[in-house]
C-alpha cells in the first residue's frame, strides 16, 4: 500500500499491479526489455519525429543536449524530464512520461546528462555525478529558450537525485521551478553501489556493460583521455570505480565521491520548492530505509508504494506506466 509522508493536497493513486507484476525484479527488468520498449517506440513515433534536437550552452563552455516537444496551442506548462545513469531520453520511462505529458497539454524537454544519449562529443571531460552546476545551467537555458508560466521537473533514479539537489539550489540560482518529482532517486550512492555489487548479478552486469560502452564511445571522440587499455582489464564496478574516481573526478576514493552527491544527511534541509519523492518499498537498488536518513522539510512529500521495483511501476500487461498518471496528477 502507498504510504505518503508529509502528505500535501494531492490524492494518492494506489499502485496495485496484478500478482506476477508485484515481483520487484519483474517490474525492474521488463521495463528495460523490448516487451515494453518496442510498443512504446511505435506509440511515440510522432513524438520522436517532431522532437527538436537542442544543444544547450552552459557556463565554462560546457554544452548539454536534449529534445524539445511543443504543443501547438497554449499549454499547461513546461515539463523537463531527466533520465537515470546510463539511460537516455529514449529510455522507456522517458518516452512514456513524455508521451503522456504531451497529450495532457504540457510542452516537454527531455534533458541529457553529460555523456548520455548522443552527447559524448560535446565536452572533453568525463561525466561525473557531482557536476550539478551544468544541469542547473541547462535548466536555466531551457527556461530562457522556452519561457512558460510554469515549469516542472521530473527525474528517475540518478536523474531524481539531480532533480532534488537542483531544487535545493534553484532559489539562489534564480530558477523558478513550480514542482519537482523524483522517482526512485539515488539516496545514498555508496550504499546503492554496494547493492549493485552484491545483489542480483543481472543488474551488476548491465551497468558494467553500459558504463563500459559509454566510456568507449567517449574515447572515440577524445582518445587523449587514454584509458583504453586499462578499461579492457576491468570486470566489475569496483574495478572501474577504483580507477576512474581518483583519475577523473577530483576525489581520492570512490566512497568520498559517492558521498559528495548523497541526498542523505542535511542535503535537503534547505529545500523550499514543492517536491515529491516516490520510492517503492521493494526497490532492488535503492534501499527504502535510506529515506529515514534524509532531512525533512514541509516542502517534501514522500510516497512509498509497496510494489514497483526500480523505476518500473507497470500497472498491467499492456505495460501502462503508473508514474505517467502520477506525474499528471502532481503537475496539475
From TrEMBL:
| Residue ranges the record marks as coiled coil | none
Q: Which UniProt keywords apply?
A: Hydrolase
Q: Organism's domain of life? A: Bacteria
List the Pfam families.
Abhydrolase_1
Q: Care to name a GO molecular-function term for this sequence?
A: hydrolase activity
> Which residue intervals define the domain AB hydrolase-1 in the entry?
80-194
Q: Which family does it belong to?
A: Belongs to the AB hydrolase superfamily. AB hydrolase 4 family.
Please state what the protein is called: Alpha/beta fold hydrolase
Q: Which organism is it from?
A: Candidatus Seongchinamella marina
